[in-house]
């Protein structure tokens, strides 16, 4: 799903905001624009839905705070450099990943699936809740269009029963 420039401007107060999975920026503007439908706070969004709480314990306090402020602010161009990700040898998954059981539970509970943060973390290969091997979707984690947001859907996620496996203890 490509968010048109006019909608990006309306949601983020910016036409240049980049779709970033792990450490997004412009979150103060997003939260401010969501106030008409939500009382969500920017810290809640950052700590519950981004990778910041995963990276921050490994950063010096001053850099961790700089990353946090960059995420809140409208310029996120330095976030990945400050967090040390650009110099890291750890690679992100190529595609958004999902657990088939989480997918089914999301459909029953919410009427639609969503991307689970824990499934996108490098090194996490098995759903910690269901013990199922995570499956790759067709949605690139870092797509060709840096303004494109991919929602979890049956168009980009098909459950391959041949690869579904439970990890047995």
Q: Would you kindly provide a written description of the structure presented here, covering whatever features stand out?
A:
The protein has seven helices and two strands, in the order ααααααβαβ. The protein has 169 residues and is mainly α. The N terminus and C terminus are likely disordered. It is 33% helix and 6% strand. The N and C termini lie far apart (39 Å). It is globular, with a radius of gyration of 17 Å. It has a two-stranded antiparallel ribbon. It has two domains: 78 residues, no CATH class; 79 residues, no CATH class.
SSE map:
Elements: H1 5-12, H2 27-34, H3 42-49, H4 52-55, H5 61-72, H6 79-82, E1 95-98, H7 100-110, E2 135-140
Antiparallel strand pairs: 1-2
Q: Can you give keywords for this protein?
A:
disordered N terminus; mainly alpha; disordered C terminus; single chain; two-stranded antiparallel sheet; 169 residues
Q: What about the largest sheet? A: 2 strands, antiparallel
- Rg, alpha carbons: 17 Å
Helix coverage percent: 25-40%
Number of strands: 2
Task: Give a quick precis of the structure.
The chain is mainly alpha-helical. 33% of the residues lie in helices and 6% in strands.
